[in-house]
Amino acid sequence: MRRLIFLFALLLLMCSGGVFADSHDGDAMSMAMPYSEGGVAAVPVGGDAPAPAHPGGAYEFVIHAHEGDTLTFATMLAQSNDGFLAPNEYGIALYAMGEPVSGDVTDQVYYWDLGSERNEPIGEGMYQAPRQAAPNSGPAGDGIVRLASDLDDNYSYPTADEIVAVTLTPGDMGDITVRIENVSDMSMYPSPITPVFWVVQSSEDMMMMDEMMMHDDMMMDDMDDDMMDDDMMHDDMGDDMDDDMMDDDMMDDDMGDDMMDDDMMMMMKHGFLFTTGAPDYGHGLESLAEDGDPSALVAQHGIGMDDM
Q1: What pLDDT, on the 0 to 100 scale, is given for residue 305?
Q2: Total-model pTM
Q3: Domain ranges (residues) in the chain
Q4: Closest to 253 measured CA to CA, from 225, 284, 233, 288
């Protein structure tokens, strides 16, 4: 537990409150992805300092939501190599039929494997946070984010409902209290969970994010394929664009017309924190999933911690 104790002692020095939040209008581009509100819940209910939520404990935070908004969050299963609990890419819808969602939404939460570190049996590995000598010291994994249930490594993994119970309680003026309770004392995998990084996104935010991510993907595709080959590097772009960019290899990579064609509109949706079956974005989720440290996510996404 030495690593976790050090982490939360550091958080204690940094923080003066249990829930840190920042509203954002989506216009500034200091962050990697757009969001309407985000923060970190670090102090368990009934506690007075940042700490893991042990079995029987919980984190709570209040969000402000409107119809079309979704909630995304992540918390580490401390007794794992890089396992975390989160909704899928789409997040949890906060409204249904024009009314705020109320009650248990645990069935929309999953146990994920980040793929950044090779897994060991839960609660036993020498490279898991409570036992490792230093962060990021375990052998690397394949780097692909996926459901732990989809792993084929002969280890057993919990389902999300064996670790947490997640409930939404609507209040006044669009306020919703989110409670993430550690119920792992009733399972085969008792473990602390770590501070919760969370964001609220509107449908407009998600469309903007998809456009940004699609643009980045297309840029990488162009660099990997034909846009940077010798012909394109040395031919006059004005004379040769029509010829070179319309050949069979370049049809799928055209940054102009093709980016918005039907095929591109059917691309896999990108998530705020990750995309299932794709490499980790490198935006800080690794620090949370391996070490329970949300600070890299906070910095990457430009969340202003007014109470830190």
Answers
A1: 55
A2: 0.74
A3: 2-203+271-300, 209-265
A4: 225
